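Record 1 of the preview.
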Amino acid sequence: MSIIRNVRGTWRKDSEQSETEVLRMYGTADLLVIDEIGVQYGTDGEQTILFDVMDRRYREMMPTILLTNQAKAGFKQFIGDRSFDRLVETSRWVAFDWPSHRATARRESAV
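->
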């Protein structure tokens, strides 16, 4: 969501950055890690912004890590067909399908 918010923030009249500058920042980072894919609304506008970032990184062969709690089908729905198509060509799906450690960590930190 922060990528979406940062891009949308450039649409304000008083924005200090242009949309191009923000997209360039995400597109040229040495390594971009995007967490929580699937918590956004999955609108066409969000998919377009994410596609723009992913397409820039794809063309420049920049490493990107995407993290989600979604299964592959849900992940594809949230990022859109165009972004997913680029990922299929160049990426690997790694499923971390064990139970969450958060509850255990919470109990251990309370002790």
